[in-house]
Amino acid sequence: MAAAVITPPSVLFVCLGNICRSPLAEAAFRHRAAIAGLAPSPAAVSADSAGTGDWHIGHPPDPRAIAEAARHGIDIAGYRGRQVARTDFARFTHILALDAQNLADLRAIAPGGTPASLALLLDLVPGMAGQPVADPYWGDAADFARTWEQVDTAAQALVEMLRS
Ligand code: 4NP
Q1: Topology, domain 14-163
Q2: Active-site residue among 20, 21, 32, 48?
Q3: For the chain, what are the domain ranges?
Q4: Which of 3, 9, 24, 70 makes the best surface tag, with the fewest CB within 10 Å?
């Protein structure tokens, strides 16, 4: 009998612009996964982020997001924005939206019968199901710090989920 093929988990974080929330979520997850021993091996787990909008394709993250990640010792200056694509639904096992509008936009473009699990990121955090990650784009450094706390809490929950 052929050995079962176990697809390594692959996670895509999706917000609107892919310059604030989802790059921070990707960075927090990569960091927490590395600490937990799930990364950097590509066979263990992979991660990416994207936006539902197209305004920031090819752009680096917002400088305030770069600064917030740097406060946690993480360099995201090399990340580049991209728009989510229908092919992502076949490439990723878990697609996590940062807010309800992002989730609705993803559902609107998801090919029928997609095997990817589609959910709100904060659904992973006990007591926070259904809540959005705060959008810091119109805010200040304190808003970015709050966003980091939320995505980092979710990243820890996601790592635990993938390990179990
Ligand atoms: P993000 O934040 O979706 O967390 O990357 C935003 C980025 C850009 C815009 C809004 C939110 N914008 O209006 O360009």
Answers
A1: Rossmann fold (3.40.50)
A2: 21
A3: 14-163
A4: 3
Q: Is the CB of 132 under 6 A from ligand 1?
A: no
> How many other CB atoms are found less than 10 A from the CB of residue 130?
8
Q: What is the pLDDT of residues 120-131, one digit of tens each?
A: 999 999 999 999
Residue 14 token pair: 């999706």
pTM for this entry: 0.94
Give the span between the Cα atoms of 151 and 134, in whole angstroms.
10
60 CA distance to ligand 1 centroid (A)? 12
